[in-house]
Amino acid sequence: MTDAYLGIETSLSARRWIGPGADVERLAEAMAQSTALPRPLCQTLARLGVPEAEAEAYLAPQLRDLLPDPRSLKDMEPAAARFLRAVAENQRIAIFADYDVDGGTSAALLIDWLRQMGLTATLYIPDRIDEGYGPNEPAMADLAARHDLIICVDCGTLSHDAIAAAKGADVIILDHHLGGETLPDALAVVNPNRQDEPGDLAHLCAAAVVFLMLVEAGRQLRAAGQNGPNLMGLLDLVALATVADVAPLKGVNRAFVRQGLRIMAHRDRPGLVALGDVARLDSAPAAYHLGFVLGPRINAGGRIGKADLGARLLATRDPSEARALAERLDQLNTDRREVEAAVRAAALEQAEARGLDAPLVWAAGEGWHPGVVGIVASRLKELTNRPAIVIGLDGDEGKGSGRSVSGVDLGASIQRLAAEGLLIKGGGHRMAAGLTVARDQLDAAMARLADLLARQGAGLAGPADLRLDGVLMPGAASVELVEQIEAAGPFGAGAPGPRYVFPDMAIGFAKRVGESHLKLRFGDGLSGQLDAISFGAFDGPLGPALENHGGARFHLAGRLDINTWGGHKTVQLRLEDAAKASA
User: Fold this and answer.
1) Which residue of 180, 257, 264, 523 is most buried, as measured by CB atoms within 10 A?
2) 295-304 and 101-116 are packed helices; what angle lies between their axes, rounded to 10 degrees?
């Protein structure tokens, strides 16, 4: 077993600290010497697997170099051609979208593009509770009776019966969820996770697939001597979906997010401006804000409110409507947090009773709101470093959602369970999945799923390991250094941001803020001081221990952010863990 970093076997949050491996240290040292880049930046690049010769190019990803050929995806050309025929003939178009951020942004991409071409489309997003995920037969039959073309985004790949019900209309599916052995009888199924795709683009979210379809549509328009909308202005939506849907930030995904954040900083999309304002963002959004500030608010409509609120917010060009929708979503997000807290407490108690070191962590409860089980599963996954499933039981069935860890394909395992008859239905992708299970099959299904996940290596990592990139002192944590490190981003799924330890620090100020957060200031007495914020610190032992430090010194671990206030930039530590320094 690897030695604990700084000797910390059990931190205040009961985690074992793991430092960078010797191979990463060697690569970082060689890169620092050959490129003259700062050592902390080289540590991050080495950990991400960036070769020394590619370091400079990695720090400046260009979309034109990384964008795949849309035609490399099966059915792309006929999908774009049918879409353009509907536009040219002013046909009636309906968009059937999933109720999460990826579905909402996918729909907004199409609505925005069509609006710029002088057209409107019908938006249909199913109710999570009444209709469930994906196309259903009554909705598709009704849409087909009133439209010529139905475009299913972020859903539809497994919806054979529902697609068959859309008689009289053509159906195009633009999705990224795992496909089955056969595909629905649609005009086109564009999905990098079809079983007959090589998987080179399996990391794309649905909004990215929609964007590639619009790229192909633009190519076909130009070939016909026409011009389409400027697609670069749509990348803010692609960036939001990529981060919020936990797509790995590699290759073109990284370029999508980098460019999309630049577009977002221009504050041209009323919905995102209003949402940022209601969330009290005082600077241009970073990838972190997409995943943890904007994304949850957009999702709140589909979770416990009206399913189409998020998509309408993203698509509107009316600032007044945007403000009203943003305020509604913000309130729904507050309501969602209250519901989530109750389910999370019960799920954690149940999961702990089963054991948090198993290959699968799961919980099921009577009447748990289906809109929050996915978030609670994510919390359990983060706590345990294991795939997690949380299920709400209602009558003879349970509907659940799961989240996975890096290297473990949850969606494929869920799909296998459905094929084996242990689930009523199930599907998803590598990092997230949904399922419906009969109550009397629950234990058998979870036991089988645990076995399948264990074969992929789930449960081998320490449940409380905290991975660290190295040591920093307060005086070295400058705005310039943090900006240089951020050039290796954006950070997120598949490319975690660096986490540093500030060793043997004295706490000069500590104060509880809000319900459960902790603000503090610390220093080493020599090189300066840093401010820190620890979100949710009082949900566990971290907050009380640091607030009542009694003059003790601590190792403090977390990620560095830049705070902008009144045009002035300062560095802040987003504190995640701490351990008492040895006397």
Assistant:
1) 257
2) 100
Q: Are 300 and 336 in contact (CB under 8 A)?
A: yes
In this structure, the strands spanning 500-513 and 93-97 are unpaired
DSSP-based three-state secondary structure for 359:
coil
Burial of 252 (0-12, 13-18, 19+ CB in 10 A): buried
CA distances for 256 relative to 116, 244, 443, 493, angstroms: 21, 13, 41, 14
Handedness of CA 433, 434, 436, 440 (dihedral sign): positive
Phi, psi of 552 (to 5 degrees): -70, 155
pTM attached to this predicted model: 0.87
> Parallel, antiparallel, or unpaired: how do β-strands 568-580 and 529-534 relate?
parallel
pLDDT in tens, 407-447: 899 999 999 999 999 999 998 888 899 999 999 999 999 99
DSSP element (H, E) containing 94? strand 93-97
CA–CA distance from 456 to each of 265, 382, 386 (Å)?
Answer: 40, 18, 12
CA separation for the pair 158, 184 (Å, rounded): 7
How does DSSP classify residue 290? I
Q: 175 phi and psi, to 5 degrees? A: -145, 175
Q: String of b and e for 289-301 (b: at least 16 CB within 10 Å)?
A: bbbebbbbbbbbb
Q: Which domains does the chain have, with CATH numbers?
A: 65-331 (3.90.1640.30), 355-455 (3.10.310.30), 468-580 (2.40.50.460)
- The CA radius of gyration of the chain, in Å to the nearest whole number, is 24
Question: What is the per-residue pLDDT across 170-214, written as a single tens digit (0 to 9) for each?
Answer: 999 999 999 989 999 999 999 999 999 999 999 999 999 999 999
Total Cβ atoms within 10 A of residue 481 = 17
H or E segment and range at residue 349: helix 319-354
136 within 8 A of 158, measured Cβ to Cβ: no
- Residue 31 dihedral angles phi and psi, to the nearest 5°: -65, -40
Tell me the C-alpha distance between 272 and 280, whole Å.
12
* Count of other CB atoms within 10 angstroms of residue 152: 31
Quick one: tokens of 59?
């720090």
The H or E element spanning position 247 is none
By C-alpha distance, which of 113, 76, 63 is closest to 191?
A: 76
Runs of H (alpha helix) within 475-561: 479-486, 542-547
Within 13 Å and on the Cβ side, how many CA atoms surround 67? 21
Nearest alpha-carbon partner for 292 in 472, 535, 515: 535
- The residue whose two tokens read 């962590």 is 361
CA distance 184 to 367: 33
Residue pair 463/431 in contact (Cβ under 8 Å)? The answer is no
